[in-house]
Amino acid sequence: MPPFAFDNSYARELPGAYVPWKPTPAPAPRLLYLNEPLADELGLDAAALRGPEGAALFAGNAVPEGAEPIAQAYAGHQFGGFSPQLGDGRALLLGELIDRHGQRRDIAFKGSGRTPFSRGGDGKAAVGPMLREVLVGEAMHALGIPTTRALAVAGTGEPVYRERPLPGAVLTRVAASHLRVGTFQYFASRGDLERLRRLADYTIARHDPGLAGTPQRYLALLRAVARRQAVLIAQWLNVGFIHGVMNTDNMTLSGETIDYGPCAFIEAYDPAAVFSSIDHGGRYAYGNQPGIARWNLARLAETLLPLLADSEDEAAMQHAVAQATEVIDAFPGWFEAALLDGQRRKLGLAGADAADAALAQDWLALLHTQAVDFTLGWRRLADAADGNDAPLRALFAEPAALEPWLARWRARGPHDATAMRRASPWIIPRNHRVEEALAAATNDDDLAPFEQLLDALRRPWDEEAALARYAEPAPAAVTAGYQTFCGT
């Protein structure tokens, strides 16, 4: 088996934060996908992983030397309700590698069988949801958005039972870490201050080493996490991404997007858009994501209060609350600044003007009232910057409604069309194309549509005739009835 140079700091330094566990062997492992560029980045031998040994490894049948498989413990607020114990119910952290850039990366399974945290579930996963993780994760990576990534997907050769039997699979996921808000909630809810402090120091050492040993390092950690999330959520909104299940156990301390379950991309612009089948009240709607991020960060702040106060004295605790509140209250400003920074690039605006925020907001309002496709609206605006308004006008039911805004935008010029196209993709994971590819893989064991779509998603800026079908919006009737599912 190809060597993995594991260095498992989480297992070594955080006893009590996990349970040692083994993946469930699969009866007939088959490699469905291997991310060769990512394997090379991790210092792995991609050619060796392509063979039967790789299939056995990625299906969980052969644990590589140096791995220490563990099921991580965490709690979480799910749709606003707190669960004091969730944990890896169908995932295992195999270990950590130092990649070619000197960065520590988690290597983890998803769908590798039951663990002590499974809560009655089977711990397994189906081919479709695991390939969705590949498609959306690689699309986000190509778009420059911090994300976990899929290293491999292996078929297990056995069915998993959901609404119907589905072919089983295991995903191998790579992450900067799997530290979550829910990891902190796990120890805070138990009043385990010693382990909470160890967890916070471990997180700082891993993600913000410059803060290690500084006097107010826990407050600085909260601020660093909040700033990362402000930038991340702004990036989501600027490409039309809906996470779908922003529970606190799905918010990372690293600032990476994690868990591509009921996620989707908007087509006709609508801040209230929801596609997740389990989000009945629209809690995690597209436009609600900044507010939910702030809410989640407030839950993280609550866990850190004993560390910020470092004393049970009432005055010390009140001061800690005030310090944490200041960070949480600063989040909307950080988010708005990051959002506007991205919008300026998409609008082709040089420098900064006090009227830019209103210009961007009015553009979005125009897209909303005219039901214009979000991705193509931004892309065709770049054509207008090149002097060709026709493709943009064709997206509007009432092209005349565009004129007043277009005049304001032109007055704010000049606009760099090339730079605008680098900020606004032509290709995103269109929901109907994703479903088309997953259905072929699931129902017909045909990976060709998946591979073709993946190739297109890795080139989001390339406007080529051969890729045109991947840029086309779904018919409105399809989008209106579209639902995504969590895959469990």
Tell me the radius of gyration.
23 Å
Number of strands: 12
Percent of sequence in beta strands: 5-15%
Global shape: globular
Helix count equals 18
What is the helix fraction of residues, given as a range? 40-55%
Helix and strand composition category: alpha+beta
Describe the structure.
It is a single chain. With 488 residues, this protein is of the alpha+beta class. Among the domains are: 171 residues, no CATH class; 67 residues, no CATH class. Helix content is 44%, strand content 13%. It contains 18 helices and 12 strands. The strands form 4 sheets. Strands 2, 6, 7, 8, 9 and 10 form a 6-stranded antiparallel beta sheet that branches. A two-stranded antiparallel sheet has the order 1-3. α8 packs antiparallel against α9 and α16 runs antiparallel to α17. It is globular and about 65 Å long. The two termini are 31 Å apart. The model has no long low-confidence stretch (mean pLDDT 96).
